[in-house]
Design goal:
Largest sheet: 5 strands, mixed
Structural class: alpha+beta
Helix content: 25-40%
CATH superfamily of the largest domain: ANL, C-terminal domain
Distance between the termini: 36 Å
Order of helices and strands: HHEHHEHEEEEEEEEEHEEHEEEH
Number of helices: 8
CATH class of the largest domain: Alpha Beta
Mean pLDDT: 91
Length: 275
């Protein structure tokens, strides 16, 4: 809705892409060609950007826009670098329905937007809280919801840090943390290491029940086709970069990851299927 409303508020008619049959990169390129106006913008989620970069025609079309906004889910660093190397003017966005859409761009908040980190640990990582005029008043028929306990502030489920330059980095989600052997593992931190392996196109880390550990770290991988998928190599990389307790106990190959909403991995579906 925000994409449509912003286009109309600017005085331009948006080009709409029908996704009833899924996202097709060539159809997306046709839609970009039909988009007129003095400046052209489009918005994708990371899984869609992967498909675009696999299509030379769609990549060329996307290279000519004024900006590509990528959000809805975390953008893996290798994917970000791949887009930049392809000459795509990418901007990462952060925000949600409760903040009227994107309100932080490439880690920098818009004017009037305030970022606060609550309950930060020694590394400066804590719960992200957003404040400003874009914050909703609350949820309908849920006046006591803790996310809106402070007027003008929205308490997210995201974990992040703000560096000395005021740039926000999202580390993961508090409600998706894995407790294994009494230690806490943030799935997105492990995923950031795994996806650097050239044989990995996409991945998702979840905690599955384990009699000894409580939960065990399991990574689901969609292969990239570039080389052989090596479980021991992946475990070794995670152990070296993070620690042994964060290394996946199992590596499971899938043709595709289940998704929910705009490009977010459905971890609940993975747990239900493999528990």
């Amino acid at each position: 809705m925000q994409v449509l409303l912003r286009a109309l508020a600017s005085g331009f008619s948006p080009t709409v892409l029908d996704l009833d049959d899924g996202f097709d990169a060539d159809t997306f390129a046709d839609a970009l060609d039909a988009l007129d106006g003095p400046r052209r913008y489009t918005s994708l989620v990371p899984t869609q950007l992967i498909k675009v970069l696999d299509s030379p025609r769609a990549t060329a079309a996307l290279r000519d826009v004024d900006a590509l906004l990528v959000g809805g889910a975390a953008t893996p660093v290798p994917l970000l670098h791949r887009a930049i190397d392809a000459g795509i003017p990418i901007t990462r966005t952060y925000g949600m329905s409760e903040t009227a859409g994107g309100c932080v761009y490439d880690g920098i908040p818009l004017d009037g937007v305030v970022i606060r980190i609550d309950d930060a640990n020694a590394d400066g990582v804590g719960r992200v809280v957003l404040g400003g005029p874009m914050v909703a008043h609350g949820y309908r028929n849920r006046p006591e919801h803790p996310a809106f306990a402070e007027p003008g502030w929205f308490r997210t489920d995201d974990l992040g840090r703000v560096d000395d330059d005021g740039v926000l980095s999202i580390v993961g989600r508090a409600d998706e943390a894995i407790t294994s052997g009494g230690l806490t593992i943030v799935p997105q931190v492990v995923e950031a290491v795994v996806v650097e392996d050239p044989a990995v196109a996409e991945c998702a880390v979840v905690g599955l029940p384990d009699d000894r550990l409580g939960e065990k770290v399991v990574v689901f991988i969609v292969p990239s086709g570039a080389g052989t998928l090596d479980s021991e190599r992946i475990r070794g990389a995670v152990t070296e970069r993070l620690d042994r307790y964060a290394a996946p106990r199992e590596v499971i190959e899938l043709a595709e990851l289940p998704l929910r909403g705009p490009g977010k991995v459905d971890r609940r579906a993975l747990r239900a299927r493999f528990s």
